[in-house]
């Protein structure tokens, strides 16, 4: 009975994963006319105006509205009062939540709204100011100011002394017309010549003007490398566009081994200054002085022969061959030509017939990585730049060098666009008065035009009438000389509801969702067209190379495609593998350990170790042998006992390891001990996420021996920096060209710049160290050996790679990637990689005469080690075990569970239901939703926990000593482990290793020494900053602006603290300096990321709790987000008349924290200082969180954040 229920749980988990996968495959709307093909890349623009018709129709149906009566662009709904009053409040609340998932702001209460307007619009004052300053300016349709950069800087100075509160942002934009330059045509006419266009800027000389005000002028030249125009061509081009020779450069590159023969101090010969980058001497020769002097052309030797190119070359070449030896000299030439820009632009260019689409295709290709907006129809490009710090001439020169076949036209008095903000203090007064009288009133400001739109919710018609009278009365107190106001008329038989799309949040969500799909295949309908390469939302770039290119090109150039969708075949294959492994385990098929079908459902059935106490006795031969061969001498007693159990187990061993207890260290030791005892071991190290695999495999690296040789399977771009060093593709790149850096665009790593490592280099370093340490070689031989290893040739690199692969004994891979065959019975990527290492690969010919590759091998491992197992679903946990003779499962069932937050899960399935038209599919989703909601508590229990609770003690290891956290933080965390026997701090037990030692060089010290009055003392290691600010719903996510303010306050105090600066200065490693900001909601993470940009002087890493699992930082700040009150507007204030003692609608949903595991992960990342920011009133409702709060309170760590 139990087994049947567990099997049903397994099946439902797979169904949940399959349905959530569909969330990622929702089609994305695109603008059909935006499609552009450049080379083998497709550029399309997302349609940001796409709306969710299903929820709109549902709201319309609820209020009996026709399609003509509902328009989201209006921002509100007018509903018959009699109908609206009969709709239950619960129904309205549910519709509001459902709408929020689709980024529609629908408030469940009716509103009264109106406008306050200034009689004199503030924008008129801005006009007056600009005219008085005699600026040449315009305003566009969006009230953005168009003005020259010079005048913009003057405006900043004027505003600093003025009474108009204009806020100028850091960035402005500029639009530059684009036209082809001569190189565009010459490179087509003379493809054999290497022709470049050079654009240089300089300032016009004018003593009466400042450097800032002087006009920017341009030198535009044509440069030919190792060639030139003959006289006939030059005469023609001179006639057509005024081309003439300006000068030429002769460069002689000298072998570095002989270049030192020339000493400018002692040599009688005068040569140009040497270029140390390539040991070259360049002779610059000018033929004309008619254009602005260029400092690059300094030397003008051999002037008498400058017009005789060959004579000058012969003389110089003869000298360099004589002085350095002809075999040590390489010659390069560059001829520089000027042309008449006016003649080219006005006379030559209009006569040319060329394809503008071809020109723009080249522009797209050249500027693919730059954040520049391209407008082919308008014939221009747009650039965002920092107008205070960036020099526009340098930006233009940089773009021109990348795209050297176009001219960017920057004119005298060229205007830029700046979207300034205008803060009207009098509007502040009006808004503050409203909020003071009506705390829950919502406002929308337009400071430029001096308008303030407001709306106030009410609960019933009587309250609505009363509020209307009070609002009118209060508005009458405003000065009529400055404002006029009006309430918007609502018919007596109607109620008005806010109903508007949150464009910004929707854009952010769409952008985030699309970026997560980078690297995914995309389709139109069922037809594959390409792989998503890059996202600069709303623009997306796809690689459409391959056999479908012509078909794809024709399809998108028809401009009829309005929707694309990700082809998640790889993810569907994962579901196939999970289902397949589930069936194999249930039926006992194809299992490397035939007992797996029994002990995976009931861990009691795993073969026990008889007399385990004998082996784990510290005096036993087994124990002593282990101690003698320990790789890490700091392995503690519980770890030693657990390692012995894993060595002796036949079927299964399980290790429960709370945070900081050394799971990764133990894994490295387990692998070492297994391979030490049996060199023929073949071990699979796996986990459900790439991050966990990469963190674990990185710990295997050892600087003393080369016995363990791991290889990491998986797509290189999906691996973390720690795991990529084991990737065969990185190794092969190193063999080929000696490089290890990844070539494709790197994702930002929270502001960190990390260097790529390589396991083969570690192997070589170990050999070098051993050679030096043993001292068995003569000095000359040793130096030769070290030189060979330090600068290995390609043959040597190949030799190391071949031997490493040949002796590989550890494979790292994610659980769900493992398998032999896909749904079409073709070998999986994992199996192909496996056969390359352990199997055989043959080239065969099929019946049709076509070649195919045959992968042969039996997928089998002597030992499977699975880390972070508590996070895996049952099928994910079990899939790799089908290929192992022995299985070691490591995890912590008090950390992240495999399920989503219950509410988030429900909203996600509702989202799918809204978008599913097929009745059978709807029925299937509804049935799944009902099952999961009914059995959610059972599904929250990880399969790891079920195994851990039932397995025999001889096969179970428990780590209960943690070495990460200060004892005060440990006292907080151990609340989560009371049922497991608690958690102790190994830094003070059995002896104090100096946990409070002010000398932080002591590896056991968790001292921080930070003293900030009212916040932290050097003895504080856990702090709860208590907030009472409301949470807000943002799509399916949550945010809490009050907590952002509280964290800002903490960071500001850190910034101003001398003790914090002293603490920071101690560390050299960026990870030690970083403050970790953790939250549980993606939208709160976005707010924290924006906040961190204001504190660039403080190293900060912002991440979700899921990504922080497995990591640690000295200081951690956790934003809890959830509150016992909820708001619908950022500026909403407490309204005690409308909502009672809370001042806001009351909520008691713990959300993510309903299960303590996520909170445990977040809090246990801190080593020295843990700061929790959250609403204690909500969290203390649950006993375990109440214990956490009480522990912090007993240590004097409670701080109340006072909102202003």
Outline of this structure?
This protein is α/β, with parallel strands linked by helices. The model is unreliable at 290-302 and 743-754 (pLDDT under 50).
Give a description of the structure.
The protein is built from 44 helices and 48 strands. Helix 31 runs antiparallel to helix 32 (919-934). 35% of the residues are buried. It is α/β, with parallel strands linked by helices and 1204 residues long. It is globular. It has a seven-stranded antiparallel β-sheet with strand order 1-28-25-26-27-3-2.
Number of helices: 44
Task: Tell me which oligomeric state these chains represent.
Answer: single chain
Return the average pLDDT rounded to an integer: 86
Strand order across the largest sheet: 1-28-25-26-27-3-2
Report the sheet with the most strands, covering strand number, pairing sense and barrel closure.
7 strands, antiparallel
End-to-end Cα distance, whole Å, is: 59 Å
Helices and strands in order:
Blueprint (H helix, E strand, L loop, with lengths): L1 H23 L3 E2 L6 E3 L2 E5 L7 H10 L13 E5 H4 L4 H13 L2 E3 L4 E8 L3 H11 L4 E3 L5 E4 H12 L5 E2 L3 E10 L1 H8 L4 E10 L12 E10 L5 H11 L2 E11 L25 E7 L22 H16 L4 E10 L2 H8 L7 H11 L5 E4 L4 E7 L5 H11 L3 E3 L6 E4 L2 E2 L2 H13 L4 E5 L4 E7 L3 H15 L7 E5 L6 E8 L1 H13 L5 E4 L2 E10 L2 E5 L5 H9 L5 E5 L1 H19 L8 H4 L12 H5 L4 H8 L8 H12 L3 E5 L6 H15 L5 E5 L2 H9 L11 E3 L8 H4 L3 H10 L21 H16 L4 H12 L3 H13 L3 E5 L14 H10 L1 E6 L5 E6 L4 E6 L7 H5 L5 E8 L10 H14 L3 H16 L1 H5 L2 H8 L5 E3 L2 E2 L4 H7 L10 E2 L36 E5 L4 E4 L2 E3 L1 H16 L1 H9 L3 H4 ...
Parallel strand pairs: 29-36, 29-37, 30-32, 30-35, 31-32, 35-36, 38-39, 40-47, 40-48, 41-46, 43-44, 43-45, 45-47
Antiparallel strand pairs: 1-28, 2-3, 3-27, 4-24, 5-24, 6-22, 6-23, 7-8, 8-19, 9-20, 10-17, 10-18, 11-12, 12-15, 13-14, 13-15, 16-17, 21-22, 25-26, 25-28, 26-27, 33-34, 41-42
Helix pairs in contact: 1-17, 1-31, 1-32, 21-22, 25-28, 26-27, 31-32, 35-44
